[in-house]
Amino acid sequence: MLAKRIIPCLDIKGGRTVKGVNFEQLRDAGDPVELARIYADEGADELVFLDISATLEGRKTLYDLVRRVGEEVNIPYAVGGGISSVDQVYTLLRCGAEKISINSSAVRNPGLISEIANEYGAQCVIVAIDAKQVEGRWIVHTHGGTKPTELGLFDWARRVQEMGAGEILFTSMDHDGTKNGFAIEALKKMNQTVSIPVIASGGAGTKAHFKDVFEEADADAALAASVFHFKEIPVPELKRYLKDHSIQIR
């Protein structure tokens, strides 16, 4: 069994790390490069940087930030936000990113998943899926969670795997920032639907929530933001806790 991964997520807006609840009520959480350095030193397995307003504002991902992070940290990191071409992926990888994350652009042009995977390998491609329950059905949303689509979560997950995605980053919009735990049942079904690694996101509030998502939902990795940014759960402490509960962690 592959070791589980702990991944701090840094949502970027205006060059700063921000965090909200249910994708709203954003508050400042600090300098992303400084936070990245701290997480690398503390033993985080990977990092994810998401320029959360890039698609909404029609901007390209902040290449300079990606380059600065690459100069400061020695752990793998993924970058997402406004990526819509293989050329942009090339630039981000040159800047130091190991993986890229696409969301709205994948929904708009599923062929982009295959293009990137064919050019740089499936291991480079994370497809981020933001979804919430609408009348009892999990519905995919794009543009930073602001635009509902006609896509069902599990059908879309199956399709992105078929198109060549190497991982899925599933964020439950209903759980995001609530600190009430991950969307365990949805994650269980996700893992029954696809065979590629699934990163769980949305809802982490206690160390037990991480244990639950690994034990009950068999997530390959757990991603969180505010509990790390605001020092509620230090990464080294979380890793010790998980090891004490016999969860194989990197």
Describe this structure in words.
It is built from eleven helices and twelve strands. The protein is an alpha/beta fold.
Short description:
The protein has 250 residues and is of the alpha/beta class.
List the helices and strands and how they pair.
Elements: E1 5-13, E2 16-21, E3 24-30, H1 32-42, E4 47-51, H2 54-57, H3 63-72, E5 77-80, H4 86-95, E6 99-102, H5 104-108, H6 111-120, E7 125-134, E8 137-142, E9 147-152, H7 153-163, E10 167-172, H8 184-193, E11 198-201, H9 207-215, E12 221-224, H10 226-229, H11 235-244
Parallel strand pairs: 1-4, 1-12, 4-5, 5-6, 6-7, 7-10, 10-11, 11-12
Antiparallel strand pairs: 1-2, 2-3, 7-8, 8-9
* Helix-strand topology string: EEEHEHHEHEHHEEEHEHEHEHH
Strand content: 25-35%
The major pleated sheet works out as: 8 strands, parallel, barrel
Overall mean pLDDT stands at: 90
Number of E strands: 12
Give me the Rg, rounded: 16 Å
> Are there runs of 5+ residues with pLDDT below 50, and where?
none
The number of domains: 1
Q: What is the CATH homologous superfamily assignment?
A: Aldolase class I
Overall SS class: alpha/beta
Name the descriptors.
250 residues; alpha/beta; globular
